[in-house]
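Operator note (shift B, R.M.): manual run for Aldo/keto reductase requested after the automated queue skipped it. Running by hand, logging everything below so the morning shift can see what happened. Input copied straight from the record, untouched. If output looks odd, do not overwrite the archive copy; leave it for review.
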Amino acid sequence: MKTETAQKPITNLQGTWELNNGYKMPYLGLGVWKAEDGEEVINAVKWAIDAGYRHIDTAKAYDNEEGVGKGIKASGVDRKELFITSKLWNTDQGYESTLNAFHKTLDRLDTDYLDLYLIHWPVEGKYKDTWRAMEKLYKEGKIKAIGVSNFLEHQLKDLMEDAEIHPMVDQLEFHPWLVQKDLQKFCAENNIQYEAWSPLMQGKAFKNETLKEIGEKYGKTPAQVVLRWDLQNGVITIPKSTSQDHIKSNADLFDFELSEDDMQTINALDRNERIGPDPDNFDF
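Run finished. Output pasted below as returned.
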């Protein structure tokens, strides 16, 4: 059976895919989860932008938005050339508190708009009011695209039931052990762009023998194999690194293409196993 690989162009590090509102989102970016605010995250962002990245993903909960903003300024690249994502934390959910939290995020990032703003987790009883606030900010032009993170199919359906604007992105845990093909299919049918967090399984990908063997065929690392697999599945990916060498290596994905057999082999590693929290059962 053929895998449902993306019929989307994968060309180079600055390549983009179009969201359901027509806004263009780079399909490879830098994640900064656990990157310490200050010099560590400033350097990571600057190195990534210097290497050609144009997509940076942060969140209020990462406590490093200020450093991300400084790294962007230090890069010298025009803000309009960059795609900046942040996420609303759970304790800030609700209509008025979302509006307040958003403006604080802008202040910390030292920018006057976001390219993408996400609801970080589906807090029951709150995410619909939160979404109304995000729709308002979107209509005002303060956010170019709005979406969610960690929403499963039933939560997406519930949100969309009352939403005026459908989510443009759903950022989810996605890696060879957690593929969630049915959720991918649902997102595709509803024009919601799938995006991966923890694509390298918090380092476990480096040790997987199957990924090592596939990498040897292409002269690539297991990390590069997984990130290329993401893109060929039509999934935007944001590997996290604070190492200049790894940041460059993670972007070296555009001189090879995984065969259909290798895509299937990686898909078959799926065991529905999470590394992070379950969106149906979290307590923060």
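Quick read of the result: The chain has ten helices and ten strands. The first strand starts at residue 16 and ends at 18.
Leaving this for review. - R.M.
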